[in-house]
């Protein structure tokens, strides 16, 4: 017997509800049917998922299965929704996902141009972090992805789109804004530092060593910028990220930090939307090249 999606759906419903009755109502099934499904799943795994028959406490295995099961159910439901939406879109549907700092610069021109050329084309845009961009393109939820990391994916063409410089981001009234002379790594860590995922891409030894001593990590960019803006905290981010920053923030380059943030373009190959994808890629390249004219980024 293999594990079916409905088995995971039943288990997750019971685990979240904490009892069979509410889970059965949610699923539109009888309690006995849900109970039988759980028994089949536990028999297949040869281990219990609940601590007792009351179904209100998970075993360690049950906690892992819940986490993984919810992820698989979400993927399955998203895939079905995408299939159904494609069936309702006679001209086609184009899905693009990008990290926020690039999305805010690229998406407006992209949508305007494609909508004018193809009025019936369905376009879905999503801005999210690099990990979710890679998951979206890898799981076929997106046709084009723009991410701040390189990863080899089957059936996906990956190219370097552009590079931009890392620098210090801080409140506009922070003392380091007006510090005379070049800013150095040792200056950065004299202030309370907020670590973020993009910092992991920096390989300069002096920075990496100091980064290891940072106690606070913020994964959401908007939350990170809000915290920096309202306090004496500082962080290091690519310059283009400042395009989505609220007023009241400042960016300074760091003289002994040569690292660049590399942004990669992921394009799905062999798809029925190839014509639209090719057009979108051209627009993306044109837009990022125009950004370079304003010294916001340095193209490779």
Keywords:
alpha/beta, Arc Repressor Mutant, subunit A, D-Maltodextrin-Binding Protein, domain 2, two-stranded parallel ribbon
Average pLDDT, all residues: 88
CATH class of the largest domain, anyone?
Alpha Beta
Estimate nothing, just give the exact number of structural domains. Answer: 3
**What is the architecture of the largest domain at the second tier of CATH?**
3-Layer(aba) Sandwich
How much beta, percentage-wise?
A: 15-25%
- Strand count: 9
- Amount of helix: 40-55%
Report the principal-axis shape.
globular
Main sheet summary:
7 strands, mixed
- Over all CA atoms, what is the radius of gyration? 24 Å
| Count of alpha and pi helical runs | 10
Unreliable runs = none
The CATH superfamily of the largest domain bears the name Periplasmic binding protein-like II
CATH topology of the largest domain: D-Maltodextrin-Binding Protein, domain 2
N-to-C order of helices and strands: HHHHEHEHEEHEHEHEEEH
Structural class: alpha/beta
Gap between N and C termini: 52 Å
Description:
By secondary structure, this protein is α/β, with parallel strands linked by helices. It folds into 3 domains: 5-85, Winged helix-like DNA-binding domain superfamily/Winged helix DNA-binding domain (Arc Repressor Mutant, subunit A, Orthogonal Bundle); 90-159 and 263-292, D-Maltodextrin-Binding Protein, domain 2 (3-Layer(aba) Sandwich); 162-260, D-Maltodextrin-Binding Protein, domain 2. Helices cover 43% and strands 18% of the residues. It has 10 helices and 9 strands. The protein has helices spanning 5-17, 20-27, 31-45, 60-87, 100-117, 130-138, 185-188, 205-211, 221-229, 274-292, and strands spanning 93-98, 122-127, 144-147, 156-171, 194-195, 216-217, 234-238, 249-253, 260-268. Strands 1, 2, 3, 4, 7, 8 and 9 form a 7-stranded mixed beta sheet that branches. Helix 8 (205-211) links the parallel strand 5 and strand 6 (216-217). Helix 1 (5-17) crosses helix 3 (31-45) and helix 1 crosses helix 4. The longest helix is centred in the N-terminal third of the chain and has 28 residues, at 60-87. The chain is globular.
């Amino acid at each position: 017997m293999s594990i079916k999606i409905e088995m995971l759906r039943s288990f997750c419903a019971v685990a979240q509800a904490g009892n069979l009755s509410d889970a059965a109502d949610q699923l539109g099934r009888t309690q006995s049917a849900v109970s039988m499904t759980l028994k089949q799943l536990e028999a297949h795994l040869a281990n219990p998922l609940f601590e007792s028959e009351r179904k209100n406490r998970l075993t360690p295995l049950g906690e892992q299965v819940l986490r993984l099961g919810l992820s698989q159910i979400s993927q399955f439901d998203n895939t079905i929704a995408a299939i159904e939406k494609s069936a309702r879109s006679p001209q086609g549907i184009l899905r693009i996902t990008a990290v926020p700092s690039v999305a805010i610069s690229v998406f407006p021109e992209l949508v305007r141009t494609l909508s004018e050329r193809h009025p019936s084309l369905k376009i879905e845009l999503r801005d999210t972090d690099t990990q979710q961009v890679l998951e979206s393109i890898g799981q076929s939820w997106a046709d084009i992805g723009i991410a701040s990391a390189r990863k080899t994916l089957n059936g996906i063409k990956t190219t370097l789109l552009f590079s931009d410089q890392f620098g210090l981001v801080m409140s506009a009234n922070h003392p380091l804004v007006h510090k005379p002379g070049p800013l150095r790594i040792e200056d950065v860590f004299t202030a309370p530092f907020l670590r973020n995922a993009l910092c992991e891409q920096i390989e300069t030894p002096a920075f990496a060593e100091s980064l290891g001593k940072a106690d606070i990590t913020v994964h959401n960019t908007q939350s990170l910028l809000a915290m920096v803006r309202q306090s004496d905290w500082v962080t290091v981010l690519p310059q283009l990220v400042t395009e989505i920053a609220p007023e009241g923030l400042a960016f300074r380059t760091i003289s002994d930090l040569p690292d660049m943030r590399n942004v990669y373009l992921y394009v799905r190959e062999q798809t029925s939307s190839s014509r639209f994808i090719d057009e979108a890629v051209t627009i993306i390249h044109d837009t990022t090249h125009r950004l370079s004219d304003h010294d916001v980024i340095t193209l490779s």
